[in-house]
Amino acid sequence: MKYGIIGAGAMGYRYGVMLQENAGVEVDFIDTWEPNVEKVRELGGVSVARDHENRRVVPINIYYPEEYQGHPDVWIIFKKQMQLDEELARDAKAELFHDDQYVFSAMNGMGHFEKIAQYFAPEKIICGTAMIATRLDGPADVDFMGEKGAEVMHLAMYASKSVPSNVTEFITDLKKAYLGPIVVEDYLGMCMSKVVFNAVVNTLCTMFEVQMGQFIEYEGVPQMARQLFDEAYDACERAGIYLIETRQEEIDSVTTTSHALKYHYPSMYQDFSKGRPTEVDYINGYIAKIGREHDYVCRTHEFVTQQVHLAELMRKYH
Ligand SMILES: NC(=O)C1=CN([C@@H]2O[C@H](COP(=O)(O)OP(=O)(O)OC[C@H]3O[C@@H](n4cnc5c(N)ncnc54)[C@H](OP(=O)(O)O)[C@@H]3O)[C@@H](O)[C@H]2O)C=CC1
Ligand SMILES: CC(C)(CO)C(=O)C(=O)O
Fold it and tell me: What are φ and ψ of residue 230, in 5° steps?
C-alpha cells in the first residue's frame, strides 16, 4: 500500500519513517510549515535520532498540498487539534482527497474524527491512538523516544466493529513497521482511554515543565492520577462510553509508561514551551464537557483546564 502523511511533525515523521524504512512501503509527506519543508529539501531528508542517539538523515519526499499529484491508498493525519480544520480545508481545495482512499489518525484529544468525516465517508475512517512518544526539536529534526520495539498503538473502525479486508493490509504494514498495532472494536472507548491518560500525564508534566521520568519521581502521582481518572470514568460512564482499560490499569500505566518514556516531554509541553496554544481543551476540557452534558461536574478537570490556560497566558511574563 502507498501512504500519504498529512503533517510532517513529530508523529507524522515517526509513522512515515518507520513505515518507509521497516515496512518498505512508499510514503509521501505533505506539510504546510514552510521552514520544515524547506529544511527537508536542503538536507535531502529528515534528521532522525532515537533517545538522542544515532542521529542520521533519512531521505523522504515532501510536498506542499498544492504541489502534490500522488494518490496514496491511505492518508495518515497528525496535526494538532487546533490546526486540523484549516489543514483539511487546504488539502481538499488542493484536490488531495479521493473517494477510494482510507484515512487514519491517532491524534490526541477528541473531535478530530467528526472533522475528518466532513471529507471522507465514515466507513473509510480508521481511528487510532498511539502510546508512542516523539519530539520535534525544530524543522526537519525529530527524536523517537523509547526503546526500539516498545511502540504500542490501538486502532478501530469509525463506522463498524470489524475491520474490512482491505484494511488488514494496512495493519500488516503497521506490524512490519514495528508500530505495534492492536485492533479493538469500539473506537470511542479506545480514544477516551487515551484522552484520560493524556489528561493526567500531558497536563501535569506541562504545568510543571518536566519530562515524564521527572514527573514520576513524586510519590503522590498515583493518588493525583486516581482523582483525575475517577472523575473522567464517572463522566464517561454517565455518557455511556466504556473505556478499554480499567481505572487501575490506567493508574498503573502512568507509572510504567512514565518510566519507559522517561526523557519525553509530552506533546502538550512541546507546544507550551514554544509559546503555542495547547490541546488542553480537547483533553481535560473535553472530559469536563462530557460531564456537564450529563449533569456531572468534573471539578478537577475544569480547574486543571483553567490552570493550563492561566499558565499559557502567564508565559508573557517569563
Ligand atoms: N508527539 C508525541 O509524542 C505524540 C503526539 N500525539 C498527537 O499527535 C498529534 C500531532 O502532534 P505532534 O506530531 O506532536 O505535533 P507536530 O510536531 O506536528 O507539531 C504540530 C505543528 O506545530 C508547528 N510547529 C512544530 N514545531 C514548531 C516549531 N519549533 N516552531 C514553529 N512551529 C512549530 C508546525 O505547524 P505550524 O507551523 O502550522 O504551526 C507543526 O506542523 C497531536 O494531536 C498530538 O497530541 C499523539 C501521541 C504522541
Ligand atoms: C507519548 C504520550 C503517550 C505521552 O503522554 C503522548 O501522547 C504525548 O506525548 O502526547
Answer: -60, -45
pLDDT digits (tens, 9 = 90+) for 97-146: 999 999 999 999 999 999 999 999 999 999 999 999 999 999 999 999 99
CA distance 32 to 9: 10
Same domain, 101 and 206: no
Q: Is the pLDDT of residue 241 over 90?
A: yes
Helix or strand holding residue 199 (H, E): helix 187-208
Probe target for ligand 1 pocket from 267, 276, 283, 284, with the most ligand atoms within 8 Å of CB: 267
- CA 146 to centroid of ligand 1, rounded, Å: 18
Distances from the Cα of 209 to the Cα of 6, 82, 206, 219, 273, angstroms: 28, 21, 5, 18, 8
pTM of the model: 0.97
Q: Is residue 258 within 6 Å of ligand 1 at its C-beta?
A: no
Ligand nearest to the CA of 273: 1
Tell me how far apart the 2 most distant CA atoms of the chain are, in Å: 55
Collapsed DSSP state (helix, strand, coil) of residue 156: strand
Of 120, 154, 185, which residue sits at a domain end?
185
Measured CA to CA, the distance from residue 110 to residue 114 in angstroms comes to 9
Which residue's C-alpha cell is 493550563? 308
* Count of domains forming the chain: 2
The parent domain of residue 108 ranges over 2-185
Please give the distance, rounded to the nearest whole angstrom, from the Cα atom of residue 296 to the centre of ligand 2: 27
Choose the final residue of a domain: 132, 152, 185: 185
Q: Which residues pair with 143 in a beta bridge?
A: 49, 135
C-alpha cell at 168: 488488514
Minimum CA distance residue for ligand 1 atom 41: 9
Separation between Cα atoms, residue 125 and residue 136, nearest integer Å: 26
